[in-house]
Fold each of these.
Amino acid sequence: MTDTGTSRYRILGKLGEGGMAVVHMAEDSVLHRCVAVKTLRRETRDATVLQRFHLEATTVSRLGHSNIVQVHDMGERADGEFLVMEFLDRGSIGKIVSSNGGHLDAVCAACVALQASDGLSAAHDAGVVHRDVKPDNLLISRQGVVKVADFGIARLQNDVHRTEPGVAIGSPHYMAPEQAEGQESSPKTDVFALAGVLHFMICGRPPFEAENVMGLLYRITSHDAPELRARARECPRVLSELVRAMHQRDPDRRPSMSEVSERLRSWLAEHGILQPAEHLRSTLGFPQTATLSGNTTTAAVHIEAPLRWWPPERALTSIATLALKFLQKREAKASR
Ligand SMILES: Nc1ncnc2c1ncn2[C@@H]1O[C@H](COP(=O)(O)OP(=O)(O)OP(=O)(O)O)[C@@H](O)[C@H]1O
Ligand SMILES: [Mg+2]
């Protein structure tokens, strides 16, 4: 890839790659700022699916919420649709956790989760469910501000898989049971996933693990999430209880995202933390990084492959197909 199809965005390097897209860091030659350009793969060419994706991306973008990644521009070029986003120079929470020794302390984890829950709660109020909350979709700036990325992408993935079995998928470690069973997602689906992200940040591993996708879906649909304090003794009880509530298998028994925000905010306030971004910035010790100035590129970022829990997704068949087979088997067993 040499440019984005419009001469405006000059590609500087690859930031990462997921199931549906490749993300590059680029220079916006008009506004002289760094941006992230996400090019969706060819499989997304279904017009209705793309229309829905645009709708969700623009809906959340219009919110202009400080904890949601801003989409600046969208377009189409020879090898697919692309969107131009604000560039978050410290990358994903997945990478931050890995570069921080494999986990974060409970207070830092709560600072990340609170900011994510504020963004998600605003999206829920606007009628949009994320459906793919995971450490790689939470990005952070050098000021410690956490932003939720990829609204609309999960829906896009689901719809593409429905029409094209066998195309790439993301890792389903944070999927809620209702999603794994192919039922409708709701705002509570994001609450379950955020519980998994909190679990991952504090323990250094996701709540559900298995040898393969089938095993993972089975665990998610048939087991309760492990207690956070059983894996991380040092985790404060209040936080562990909140995570347990968020991880309830019945969506109706989970708190709403705004309740999650409230509980995290008051727990952090009890610890004297009123500015979660500032706490993260100072605790994680982000160095000052230069940004683009004029035509000179001096942005200091890690341009590398993202932390992945799953081998390249192209080797996997679609979740929808696997889940269906799995459910059919289970039903067949039950009726025997
Ligand atoms: N706006 C951005 N600013 C900085 N880095 C970004 C931005 N968007 C994405 N990235 C980086 O690119 C990586 C790949 O993103 P991408 O969304 O394609 O994959 P993913 O989130 O790992 O998987 P999925 O396909 O499920 O979304 C991210 O993990 C992150 O490190
Ligand atoms: Mg993503």
Amino acid sequence: MIESKVAEINEEREIVDNDDGPENPLDFESVEAANAMDDFQRINLVEVKQTDLQSMITKLNTDQKRVFDIITNKMDTTDSNADVLRCFFFIKPTMTIDFYHMFGSPPCSLVEMTFAALGLESKVKHHFVDFLANEQFTPEYLKMNPQHTAPTIVDDGFVLWESRAISKYLIDKYSKGNTLYPEDVQARAVIDQRLDFDIDTLYGRFTEYYFTHFFEGKPLEESGVKKIQEALGFLDTFLANTKYAAGSELTLADLALLVTVSVIEAGNISVKEYPNIVRWYDLVKSTAPKLAAINDKYVKDFIDFFDGLAKK
Ligand SMILES: N[C@@H](CCC(=O)N[C@@H](CS)C(=O)NCC(=O)O)C(=O)O
């Protein structure tokens, strides 16, 4: 194991040495360094500006610092003549994505499913935002997201809210070209169309009907149900022509619509009258059972949350 690591590194060193860069001073014959390396993910040969390097050093944990010291003890990292310092940099993937979420929140379910679909779970640091305690209105939260909504993510300092925007960003950043949100412009356009239909028409009409009742005391109007049923009819028609919501593959559109259709059911509006929705709903759940289980948990919490409000 160690030998193969050392061989791998030596191969890289040759590339560096042939690249007119400063000689790489690493001594990977050091068993300690090689051992430690097993725990570390080599990001790549990177060009590190002096200023960036200093800030990277401050972010290292103890183990990383130890390896960094082994790597750099022969390297003059303060050489002011070296505008750009070439070095091997080993960083354990401790980088976290801060995820601000609320109990039973449908848009948070979409982001949580996206994390799982991309295998990012271990990078995610959850921060529960207590909606009932108005934690989204703290000065710190408002500074981060003036719109005071969850989900919100902070990815290495980059702040983003709006669940669909977050999911697209995660796919583009961590799994570019993933079939959930492929790069083909027309495939994307159809997915975007379904996502916009969802946020504006299907989920939009549901929130207008359901949330305004619980949060603004409006009655649960039959006209609201009719509007949701009309939107379900649109979705049923879309699904008459495609296997999944936006074509022959499972995409982000399916995940967003899965969230919406399941909360519509949780809001006691039946979807059984829509045969294509029923077929698609089962298909999505059987295609992505792990993601469906995440959503089921959110739906259960959603029901508990509104049951709790109804009892108040
Ligand atoms: N369109 C947004 C909706 C976000 C949203 O309204 N989230 C609710 C929880 S489900 C929230 O944060 N409510 C607290 C507030 O608006 O103050 C998205 O998809 O992320």
